[in-house]
Amino acid sequence: MIYWSFSSLKDFINCPKQYYHTKVAKDYVKKQTQQMLYGTEVHKACEGYVRDGAPLAKNYERFKPQLDALLGISGTRYCEHEMALTRGREPCAFDSETRWVRGVVDLLIVDGTDAYIVDYKTGSNRYPDPKQLKLMALMTYEHFPEVQSIKAGLLFVLHNTFITEEYERKDRFKLWDNFLPDLKRLEVAYNNNVWFPKAGPLCGWCPVNTCNFYRER
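Structure (tokenized):
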């Protein structure tokens, strides 16, 4: 059974060989970078403020206007909300043995037939990738059958930038087309146990130092 998430599929697309060593064989481990640790801290701060009203640390107070705007949206708020689907695209528990795909949405607001999805970002806003929003929308439609329309956005908190998209329930089958070709490649790799390396600008950060494309930073 193949399990996947947005991040794991992205890892496979970036380099099948690294994916194999870190996700399948698990003989190499990706190290946490300072940027990743900072991102985790910011996510926790935003979650605490939006969910519990916890005060923001002084160095995060600049995010308050952006978060207050989210608090102004009516509806039931779900912070760090876990969702999963079976291969038949039925909703299931996050840790279910029948799961096929799963993910965690930073902030989900459900207001009757409308929903809002927000993903906090601490990196650059130069090349936004909204595919993560599409996957969260697809899972929201299955877990919340009353939802018909979704407004979603990548909130780049360091840049005060909000990249938005809108979806309708009737279009959810088209949304799956954003993932199915890559999922087919992933399935073929598993079935044939073939994991080709892929050279790229992130090779210097790859933990698989036995790869021919590996280079010291």
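The longest helix spans residues 34-52. Strands lie at 76-86, 91-92, 99-111, 114-121, 149-156, 161-168.
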